[in-house]
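Sorry, any thoughts here?
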Amino acid sequence: MGKRVAYLGPAGTYSEQAAREWADNATLVPVESIPAVANSVSVGLADEGIVPIENSIEGGVTFTLDLLIHDSELSICGEVIVPIHQCLMAHSKIELSDIKNVISHPQSLGQCRDFLTNKLPGAELTASLSNSTAVQEMMEASFETAAISSERAAILYGATILLENVEDRSNNETRFVVLSHSDHEPT
């Protein structure tokens, strides 16, 4: 059996992209939360786990930092930096003025704060457990609902991309760390 890498799922998240970049031949194991990634490694359901630790716009990822400080005996054995290009999407083509709700992961909502304030000032913002889950939730919601997520998530779940690169800074990137039972050898 090959290496198993847990990541914040479902498919289409930036965490999945980071996991593919880290170990493209590994079996990817999607889980529902950042703590579940660490737990999957701790109990042997995965050999490694990949979690976001900081973003160039939003800073540290609190869930991951708390996990590493308080709740985990795992080591960081590697890292991956992923450029983040957020897309605004909906069921089908819709005018921005008709969007009443935007769903996304809290980090992504923060990365797009200026865009949301300037282009969708009246829209309610709803947090989701992951960007891909946000797209799934949007597809089950009213046609006045949009999501912010990756291009891959739009393709996977049949959403229509309304605008690309809605992040507030074009150099937006997230650093992911790889968790395992063993540390990386000193360099």
Summary: Helices lie at 14-22, 34-42, 62-71, 106-111, 113-119, 131-139, 151-157.
